[in-house]
Each structure stands twice: as structure tokens, then as C-alpha cells.
């Protein structure tokens, strides 16, 4: 495992920890899109079906279980926890996220590495992950006050994606036969979706003012 | 493991 991949996984892990910290300690999910969280729960469930068929490493298995468990529990907290769910910005979080799923499924049926159930699900999870952040970005833009934890959560997620792109570049040049167009294209699309957010985040950081996205 | 390369990623 190279340094970019490890750093990518760690920023992903930190992003989840930041979100859990907000939910568990402050008992708030204000500014967090349930739609995005539901999409992530579906992304990890469909991608990690290979937990039952392929063993890669202990690290791999543990991380998969963490991402599965945390994404499902975050959705549970936002929907059912009696305190947390009250802070959910339901009226602002109106992105019709299920509309993203059908095109991703059709694309996965058409473009996959092999036409098997696991491979189609795997491709579906990559396409869906690429667009899963959209409801969150839309909610950020609508929420006038973005708190620090929410800003850091999205920043860490974006950093995780950018580090994975570096990881692919590194692997392409150091490993033989390492070519994965589906992963690369959907991963690059996903990373580009964060570009706008990154821009405003660093502007606010540089000017030492509170993060606000233009309407 | 050339076929599964990439599937070792999360």
C-alpha cells in the first residue's frame, strides 16, 4: 500500500469520525444531508458484497466493516434518534436522491468489468459514490451558517477522493497491468464535484472568515 | 492477482 492510498483511507476514516463526533457528542446533525448519508450506506453495501467471497487483508476487512457500520448507523441516528433527528434540516434537504440511483444502475449494467452480479453491483457503487455528495453540496449551499464540523467533514471527504486519484497515478506507474477505467473516471468526476467547495473553503480559511457558499 | 487489482481498494 502506498502513502497516498493510506492517507486517503485515513482522511476517509477521519471524515466519518468527525461526523460521528458531531452526532454523538453534540447530538446534532444540522447541516448534514440524510440523502447523501443514505446514498453512502447503499454505496458501501453494494460495493462490499465481496466481503463474503474474497479475503484481501485484515486491514481491508476491518475498514470495510467500519465504513459499512458507520454509514448505516449514521442513517439510523438521523432518522430515529430522538434528539439527533430534531436537528435534521429536513425542509432544506430536498434533493431527490433516488433519481440518481436508476441512471447509475443502468450505467452499471452497460459498463462493467464483467457481467456478473458482484461486478455490476461494484460498478453501480462507484457510479453512485461519484454523485452521492450532490445532496450534501446542495444543502451546504442552502444553509447560511455552515458550522466548523460540517465544513471539516466535507473537506476531509474531498481530500480522501483527491488522495485516491494520486494513489491511482502512483499505482499506474509502479504496478504492471494496473488499469481501471471505471474506477478512475468515476473517481475523477467525484473529485471534480468538490472543486468548487474547496475553492470557497480555502478562501474563507485564507481570509479568516466564516465559510459561506454563494447562493 | 492481476484481475482483482483495484478491488483491494476501498
Automatic annotation (TrEMBL), chain A:
It is a multi-pass membrane protein. PROSITE patterns: ER_LUMEN_RECEPTOR_1, ER_LUMEN_RECEPTOR_2. Belongs to the ERD2 family. Pfam families: ER_lumen_recept. It comes from Gossypium hirsutum (Upland cotton). GO terms for cellular component: cis-Golgi network; endoplasmic reticulum; endoplasmic reticulum membrane. The gene is LOC107914813. Its main location: endoplasmic reticulum. It comes from the Eukaryota. One of its GO terms (biological process) is vesicle-mediated transport. The chain crosses the membrane at residues 55-77, 98-115, 121-140, 152-170, 182-202. One of its GO terms (molecular function) is ER retention sequence binding. It is found in: Endoplasmic reticulum membrane. This is ER lumen protein-retaining receptor. Keywords: Endoplasmic reticulum, ER-Golgi transport, Membrane, Protein transport, Receptor, Transmembrane, Transmembrane helix, Transport.
Amino acid at each position: 500500500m502506498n502513502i497516498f492510498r493510506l492517507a486517503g483511507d485515513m482522511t476517509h476514516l477521519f471524515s466519518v469520525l468527525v461526523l460521528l463526533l458531531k452526532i454523538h457528542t453534540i447530538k446534532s446533525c444540522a447541516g448534514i444531508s440524510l440523502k447523501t448519508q443514505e446514498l453512502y450506506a447503499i454505496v458501501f453495501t453494494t460495493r462490499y458484497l465481496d466481503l463474503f467471497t474474497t479475503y484481501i487483508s485484515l486491514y481491508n476487512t476491518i475498514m470495510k466493516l467500519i465504513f459499512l457500520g458507520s454509514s448505516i448507523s449514521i442513517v439510523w441516528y438521523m432518522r430515529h434518534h430522538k434528539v439527533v433527528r430534531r436537528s435534521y434540516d429536513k425542509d432544506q434537504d430536498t434533493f431527490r436522491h433516488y433519481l440518481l440511483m436508476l441512471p447509475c444502475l443502468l450505467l452499471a449494467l452497460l459498463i462493467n468489468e464483467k457481467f456478473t452480479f458482484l461486478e455490476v453491483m461494484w460498478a453501480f457503487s462507484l457510479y453512485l459514490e461519484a454523485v452521492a455528495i450532490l445532496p450534501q453540496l446542495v444543502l451546504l449551499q442552502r444553509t447560511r451558517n455552515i458550522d466548523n464540523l460540517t465544513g471539516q467533514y466535507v473537506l476531509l471527504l474531498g481530500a480522501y477522493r483527491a488522495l485516491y486519484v494520486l494513489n491511482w497515478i502512483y499505482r499506474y506507474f509502479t504496478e504492471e497491468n494496473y488499469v481501471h477505467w471505471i474506477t478512475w473516471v468515476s473517481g475523477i468526476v467525484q473529485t471534480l464535484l468538490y472543486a468548487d467547495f474547496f475553492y470557497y473553503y480555502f478562501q474563507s480559511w485564507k481570509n479568516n472568515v466564516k465559510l459561506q457558499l454563494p447562493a | 492477482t492481476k484481475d482483482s487489482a483495484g478491488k483491494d481498494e476501498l
